[in-house]
Amino acid sequence: MINMYNSDECPDMITKVYLVVEQIIQSQLETGKSIQFALELNNKLKTDYQELNNLFLARCDMSLDVIFLKQIVEKVKELLVYTEQPLSQIAKALGYEKSNDLSEQLLRYTGLTPAHFKRIREIKLENIRRQQKKI
């Protein structure tokens, strides 16, 4: 197979893919509308999804789908720690029919449950309260 990306273009394309992934996730969270990942990636980057997937498999040892799921997990962790949104609300916004599916992905990719990240939030808030009392 011929690789359409030379070694100079690969890091740039990888960065572009990650930016599109972030945009897709943010858009889903803001609108609650599901976005078809492969189609959106093709439209935004004007390149073949399978060719990009092969690039990521070769360079990152991960498929685009896995990268997308890992980025979702990172965003979910962030939302659980820094917002009061329940997992059910986050899951719905990201297009999951059941929050259990998202919970399972969180557990698969981090080894931790949603409750763990909520506990981190509680600890952070408690530390802030303690600091404010000292002032």
From TrEMBL:
Output the Gene3D superfamilies linked to this UniProt entry: Homeodomain-like
What InterPro entries does the database record attribute to this sequence?
Homeodomain-like_sf, HTH_AraC
Q: Which UniProt keywords apply?
A: DNA-binding, Transcription, Transcription regulation
A matching Pfam family: HTH_18
Q: Which GO terms label this protein's molecular function in UniProt?
A: DNA-binding transcription factor activity; sequence-specific DNA binding
- According to the entry, every stretch annotated as the HTH araC/xylS-type domain falls at 19-120
Q: Tell me which domain of life the UniProt entry assigns to the organism this sequence originates from.
A: Bacteria
Question: What is the name of the protein in this document?
Answer: AraC-like DNA-binding protein
Q: Which organism is it from?
A: Sphingobacterium detergens
